[in-house]
Design goal:
By secondary structure, this protein is α+β, with helices and mostly antiparallel strands. It contains 6 helices and 13 strands. It has 2 domains: 103 residues, 2-Layer Sandwich (D-amino Acid Aminotransferase, Chain A, domain 1), CATH 3.30.470.10; 149 residues, D-amino Acid Aminotransferase, Chain A, domain 2. This is Aminodeoxychorismate lyase. InterPro entries: Aminotrans_IV (IPR001544), Aminotrans_IV_CS (IPR018300), Aminotransferase-like (IPR036038), BCAT-like_C (IPR043132), BCAT-like_N (IPR043131), Class-IV_PLP-Dep_Aminotrnsfr (IPR050571). Belongs to the class-IV pyridoxal-phosphate-dependent aminotransferase family.
């Protein structure tokens, strides 16, 4: 391992007194398709709303957001298909109750390989508190997700599915959950304790236009085991079929899943 720089700030865009080092920060990950960011308006709105709830004083008109994204995509010499936007909590004196000033927004373009194979999920060994407000933010604090993903790997699975203490399914470490049953679409409501994902929002908004019945409803483990199909979704990967949850196998090529996958391809840049 190379020696650490004596001035750690030389390796970071954030000052030493930025509240990002307390875990106070937000991020968005945008998929880039045909050289353009997908759903930039929805990502901007979520970032703006979340910052307001955390009292992070960000002044970022939508036009400036688009300009920053476009500039970010012009910088890399290699092809990219994603952008990460990281917003810090800002500079502040020591202490948990202090409010940051001068928050920093750092955009980074990157390349990733989309996952095209169906996923294997396992139920998490711990439950979440649905009243915990942290789950409603796309926060930089990913320690729980890291621990859960490692647990999944140890159990021979790709991902963990979380449940709350009432036994209701919530989400995976990085994606929202949908269930197909009787050719209808179901997804847990935000009140179960989960993030309002961008693709989740689009499916709820557009399903009716696509001739699909979609509703928010608490989902138990028993209901998931009895489902015709499951899939998860996020902004980078789109929709991903689930082939197995614990010991239950599913149709990873369900016609409704295939329909939604095709519809979302056109919707991303609409």
């Amino acid at each position: 391992m190379p020696p650490l720089s004596p001035d750690h700030t030389a390796l970071s865009p954030f000052t030493r007194d930025d509240r990002i080092y307390l875990g106070e920060g937000l991020f968005e990950t945008l998929r880039v398709q045909a050289g353009k960011p997908c759903y930039p308006d929805l990502h901007w709105q979520r970032l703006h709303d979340s910052a307001a709830r955390l009292h992070i004083a960000i002044e970022l008109p939508y036009a400036d957001w688009l300009q920053r994204l476009q500039q970010c995509l012009l910088e890399p010499k290699e092809p990219v298909n994603g952008v990460k936007a990281l917003l810090s909590g800002g500079r502040a004196a020591r202490g948990l109750l202090t409010t940051g000033t001068d928050p920093q927004l750092v955009l980074t373009a990157f390349h990733y390989s989309p996952v095209t194979t169906p996923l294997t999920l396992v139920s998490s060994s711990w439950q979440r508190d649905r009243n915990n407000p942290v789950y409603g933010f796309k926060s930089i604090n990913y320690l729980e997700a890291i621990m859960a993903r490692r647990q999944a790997a140890e159990r021979g699975a790709d991902e963990v599915l979380f449940y709350n203490m009432e036994g209701e399914a919530t989400e995976t470490t990085v994606a929202n959950l949908f269930m197909i049953s009787g050719n209808r679409l179901y997804t847990p409501p935000l009140s179960c304790g989960l993030l309002a994902g961008i693709i989740r929002q689009r499916l709820l908004t557009k399903a009716g236009d696509w001739g699909v019945v979609c509703q928010e409803s608490p989902l138990t483990q028993h209901q998931l085991y009895d489902a015709d199909a499951l899939f998860v979704c996020n902004a980078l990967q789109g929709v991903q079929a689930v082939q197995r949850l614990d010991n239950t196998a599913y149709d990873s090529h369900h016609p409704l899943f295939l329909l939604l996958r095709e519809k979302l391809k056109d919707d991303a840049l609409a």
